[in-house]
Write a sequence for this structure.
């Protein structure tokens, strides 16, 4: 499986619709998109369960497993994501 440019574009569009202020792609989709088995995202600006509603919608539309992490409150993991990930929004 691989992560395509079209999938990334759809992620950005839906994240904006849901109110995302920041969106960072990290993990295997950044390191080697052609070999990625899932998509890892970190997001800010989408409150509460809406963040997980977005994740479910993305999985349904893109037919790929997706993990989503809120960027707030900041911690060691989110700082790592911010330093190594690819900013989409």
């Amino acid at each position: 499986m691989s992560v395509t440019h079209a999938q990334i574009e759809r992620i950005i569009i839906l994240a904006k619709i849901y109110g995302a202020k920041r969106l960072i792609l990290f993990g295997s989709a950044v390191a080697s998109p052609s070999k990625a088995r899932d998509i890892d995202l970190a997001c800010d600006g989408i409150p509460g369960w809406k963040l997980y509603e977005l994740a479910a919608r993305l999985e349904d539309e893109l037919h790929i497993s997706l993990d989503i992490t809120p960027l707030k409150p900041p911690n060691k993991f989110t700082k790592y994501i911010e330093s190594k990930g690819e900013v989409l929004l």
Observations:
- Helices lie at 5-18, 28-31, 50-62, 76-84.
- The CA atoms of residues 4 and 78 lie 24 Å apart.
- The domain at 5-87 is CATH 3.30.460.10 (Beta Polymerase; domain 2).
- The first helix runs from residue 5 to 18.
